[in-house]
From TrEMBL:
The gene is CLCN3. It comes from the Eukaryota. PANTHER family: CHLORIDE CHANNEL PROTEIN, H(+)_CL(-) EXCHANGE TRANSPORTER 3. Strongly outwardly rectifying, electrogenic H(+)/Cl(-)exchanger which mediates the exchange of chloride ions against protons. The CLC channel family contains both chloride channels and proton-coupled anion transporters that exchange chloride or another anion for protons. The presence of conserved gating glutamate residues is typical for family members that function as antiporters. The lineage of its organism: Eukaryota, Metazoa, Chordata, Craniata, Vertebrata. GO terms for molecular function: ATP binding; chloride:proton antiporter activity; PDZ domain binding; voltage-gated chloride channel activity; volume-sensitive chloride channel activity. It is found in: Cell membrane; Early endosome membrane; Late endosome membrane; Lysosome membrane. Residues 818-838 are annotated as: Disordered. This is Chloride channel protein. GO terms for cellular component: axon terminus; early endosome membrane; external side of plasma membrane; GABA-ergic synapse; glutamatergic synapse; Golgi apparatus; late endosome membrane; lysosomal membrane. It comes from Terrapene triunguis (Three-toed box turtle). Residues 630-694, 727-786 form the CBS domain. Coiled coil: none annotated.
Amino acid sequence: MDVSSDPYLPYDGGGDNIPLRELHKRGTHYTMTNGGSINSSTHLLDLLDEPIPGVGTYDDFHTIDWVREKCKDRERHRRINSKKKESAWEMTKSLYDAWSGWLVVTLTGLASGALAGLIDIAADWMTDLKEGICLSALWFNHEQCCWGSNETTFEERDKCPQWKTWAELIIGQAEGPGSYIMNYIMYIFWALSFAFLAVSLVKVFAPYACGSGIPEIKTILSGFIIRGYLGKWTLMIKTITLVLAVASGLSLGKEGPLVHVACCCGNIFSYLFPKYSTNEAKKREVLSAASAAGVSVAFGAPIGGVLFSLEEVSYYFPLKTLWRSFFAALVAAFVLRSINPFGNSRLVLFYVEYHTPWYLFELFPFILLGVFGGLWGAFFIRANIAWCRRRKSTKFGKYPVLEVIIVAAITAVIAFPNPYTRLNTSELIKELFTDCGPLESSSLCDYRNDMNASKIVDIPDRPAGTGVYSAIWQLCLALIFKIIMTVFTFGIKVPSGLFIPSMAIGAIAGRIVGIAVEQLAYYHHDWFIFKEWCEVGADCITPGLYAMVGAAACLGGVTRMTVSLVVIVFELTGGLEYIVPLMAAVMTSKWVGDAFGREGIYEAHIRLNGYPFLDAKEEFTHTTLAADVMRPRRSDPPLAVLTQDNMTVEDIENLINETSYNGFPVIMSKESQRLVGFALRRDLTIAIESARKKQEGIVGSSRVCFAQHTPSLPAESPRPLKLRSILDMSPFTVTDHTPMEIVVDIFRKLGLRQCLVTHNGIVLGIITKKNILEHLEQLKQHVEPLAPPWHYNKKRYPPSYGPDGKPRPRVNNVQLNPIAEEREETEEEVHLLNSTTL
């Protein structure tokens, strides 16, 4: 096989994909853990009591072994409990260990809330910097600058002498064509400057700081190792560039990247506590709580953040993690509320309250908005993935700075003339959500007043004025603009979230539908659908409610979230009575989106990037067996195994040097081939090296013994090496007739990296996580794969048994009893080979 044609190493023992460009970072050690339990009462070598560095850790782009990590944690917990009654110091250490989980989530919540407040304040200030500056206090944004002014009017409350546009400062004109052109030029200049600075910082200092981060967070929480993705440099650069990206006016949001920022905080703080720094599975419990804190500060929705972590990103979510996630979200929301970044005593900019109830007839337009959200989600996923795949496969992807500059330039040039696209996206959502009242001066509220309604709390439905019709046309143009630019923006090399752009698209569509229904009810109040509940002069329809429902529907169509999304939007509005419309729209959008493809945008990007992620939501309905998927196959070399007591140190070293597998089954002998256990490549290497250094008489011809008792050897034989203590005596095994549906469930629920396939106790082959993903990809052949599969350019694999149905004996990577004359393949064997060929 030509290795250069495949970006991933063709080894089957580890269950991971390792890009060739990463090999120089790893040296000669490979990490692979097994699915069995750990005999933690023994040491690595008989004569070595001290721990050996490197054992139990993982290299970059490898998958952790959940079972092994949980066993390590249980052993640590038992050791602490057994010592806590010995002294006051041991009792103190036990209490510290028990409370360390709450301490780390508290620190994570504090840091997440503080950083979110800082990002909100800085993004608002830099967004307004594109239009002008406050001369009385340079650190004030436009709204804050005019708070203390006594010269503002009700109609022009945002205009005050303290705030100067760039046209006023440069050419001294506040109105006219010259002023418009100068403001236009400065808007584009600042947008390009912010975008260029953001992409440059990401490219130079922290390449992992780009994008949303949620696909990678999902992959990491499933057990994958990506070194540096949650590091301090990524946190620092992502915080800075997120502000710049939002301020540049690109069609993106900061809510998704805030989850990445919070997880960076959780990862950094976990290193302060040995309970989490030395255990990758425990660390992922902290990351689950951190993701809840991130959504809590992004939307001001602590409960929605916990449900988001449970429904969308977490792979392993025990009850203890649920409590700590809730506490982390609470602390983060409290800190953000104390900072009060928006000056409205709320956690988010677009907090709204509605006072008008909804009516049964309105479920029909709500469901229509759900259909629109599902169609938008399906279109966006396909279009964005197609563009990202094209970016990866063409020269355009080699120039990320140029791409960001082009997208930012097009966005700024088109966005400035339209007041709804010129607005910050969060402010746009706020204006679309807000119901028209007596204090609103927006053109969306330019209705013709037929009565003196200045003292009425609930303004009745009124005929739309010219301002409303003009705003509808501008919103239609803004809708088209947002749909197109969001497709090309999500995935560029700057921090880019998808929550806010999707909500903006849905809010625009919902507001347009809401105004249409409102005018229909006003002019045709005698229709039977309005006659019963909508009287003349009553406030029947709330267009802002339609905007909120549309926002939830579009976000649900893209991400396929349901429960957490409804709770998030419910916490935004504070109204229990609107849960039914939200549920109807979100479920409709999910059903419509699932009709075109069951993957959400994050799962699609995970598959596009080739991450080893087994989606728990995906159903496996095929009837294949473990024997159809296991390795090796027909044209593959035989399974490399070790014998219990018939191999020398030199034999094992040669086997390690000649193969790239990360683990080897240990059998009793070449005659019986019955399974004894499983030995890791890295453990074998470390054990042999340590034995050569610390034990006398260990040479290449020394017999290696995995059995409990050393066999009798001639007197002139060199000293044997006992390696039973590194042997996993209980590897996970399945029979060759186990349905793959059960095997996939075992891998998902136990977090396995591999399991052995046996027949009557005889080892036939091995199934790794990579083999599972290959098999699932093969079953989707009717769908064009998003990324080159791992089996690309690989040969067909043979079954581990001969045509007579008996297992083929093998040992030391050599077939023991080769069959001289192979029978011709039967029809059944040909069918099996064709159905399992990758």
